[in-house]
Amino acid sequence: MEFTDIRYDVTGNVARITLNKPEKMNALSWGSWAEIEQAIALADNDDDARCVLITGEGRGFCAGTDLTVTTNEDQWPARPYTGRNGRVRSRYLGTSDVHNCRKPTIAAVNGASVGAGFSLALACDIRIASEAARFSAIFVKRAIVADTGCTWFLPRIVGPAKALEMLYTGRLVGAQEALTMGLVNEVVPADQLMPRALALAGEIAHGPSLAIELDKRLVREAFERDLESHTELEQFLQGYTHSTEDAAEGRKSFLEKREPVFKGR
Q1: CATH number at residue 124
Q2: Domain for residue 1, yes or no?
Q3: DSSP-derived secondary structure for 78-128
Q4: Cβ neighbours of residue 156 closer than 8 Å, sequence gap 6 or more
Q5: Same structural domain for residues 224 and 143?
Q6: Are residue 38 and residue 54 in the same domain, yes or no?
Q7: Closest of 216, 201, 253 to residue 52, by C-alpha
Q8: Pair 42, 105 in one domain
Q9: Which of 59, 53, 54 is nearest to 25 (CA)?
Q10: Which end of the chain, C or N, has fewer beta carbons within 10 A?
Q11: pLDDT per residue over 4-23, tens digit each?
């Protein structure tokens, strides 16, 4: 599949989505979101893609919505939804696709991540930031309500009080402050961002992908289920993973005192 606003490739079991409009700080049009949705669908259905890494080309991660686009809807790339589902599905749900991706997702935030671009980073499981990264729920500066799931993601990650402060003020939060508040997992020098992000993505991608995908599901669902029923589901899914080739390799490598070689089966 050919893309215009993003680049997509799978190397070493890592699916890499690069926002590719550096002249506009990777600002997103509805066409850009359609391409992101398509890329996530490709990764989700590709057994060779075991981790998804999202980053931006140039000096910014994503400057939010591209307000300069004048194309009509019939000129946008196709979304991976057809029929009634395609007709009624909100255009704002690209971050939902990222959040609901079965594969682990990492945002490598190389610069400004604001507005809808902030929401995109928040939708990922893990965020690694360059020292140059900046984050803002900038919507209030335009006197509009936040969108693309920002008010859903942000309080779950940093808590309601910090989330509301960012939403009320729209101020830029630097990388180190973002680390302190739990907004990002790690901060690294700019020249180490992609090597570090790719190393982590590779480590995850070469792990037991079935167990990892189920762990992701369990963590997401834990907030909606009581402890007893959730523990029972853990036990059920552990029984499923016990029967996989990777589990057999895990046991064998332990007995042979070597590193396991998992194949995602």
Answers
A1: 3.90.226.10
A2: no
A3: PPS--HHHHHHS-TTTHHHHHHH-SS-EEEEE-SEEETHHHHHHHHSSEEE
A4: 223
A5: no
A6: yes
A7: 201
A8: yes
A9: 59
A10: N
A11: 999 999 999 999 999 999 99
Report the SS3 class of residue 180: helix
Give the model confidence (pLDDT) of 123-141 as tens digits: 999 999 999 999 999 999 9
Specify the DSSP element, H or E, that contains 7.
strand 6-11
**Structural domain boundaries enclosing 128:** 6-205
- Listed residue (93, 165, 97, 98) closest to 127, CA to CA: 98
Read off the CATH number of the domain in which 247 is found: 1.10.12
Residues 52 and 19 in one domain: yes
Out of 186, 205, 224, a domain closes at 205
> Number of structural domains, the chain?
2
CA distances for 179 relative to 38, 103, 164, 242, angstroms: 31, 24, 17, 36
Q: Are residues 126 and 217 in the same domain?
A: no
Return left, alpha or beta for 172; rule: phi > 0 is left, psi -120 to 50 is alpha, else beta. beta
Phi, psi (degrees; rounded to nearest 5) at 238: -65, -35
Q: Are 99 and 123 in contact (CB under 8 A)?
A: yes
Nearest of 125, 126, 101, 105 to residue 37 by alpha carbon: 101
pTM of the model: 0.93
Task: Give the helix/strand (H/E) hosting 188.
Answer: strand 186-188
Please indicate, yes or no, if residue 157 is contained in any of the structural domains: yes
Residue 111 confidence (pLDDT) above 90:
yes
Q: What single-letter amino acid sits at 181?
A: M
What SS3 string covers 10-63? EECCEEEEEECCHHHCCCECHHHHHHHHHHHHHHHCCCCCCEEEEEECCCCCEC
Q: How far is CA 107 from the centre of its chain?
A: 6
Q: Are residues 127 and 243 in the same domain?
A: no
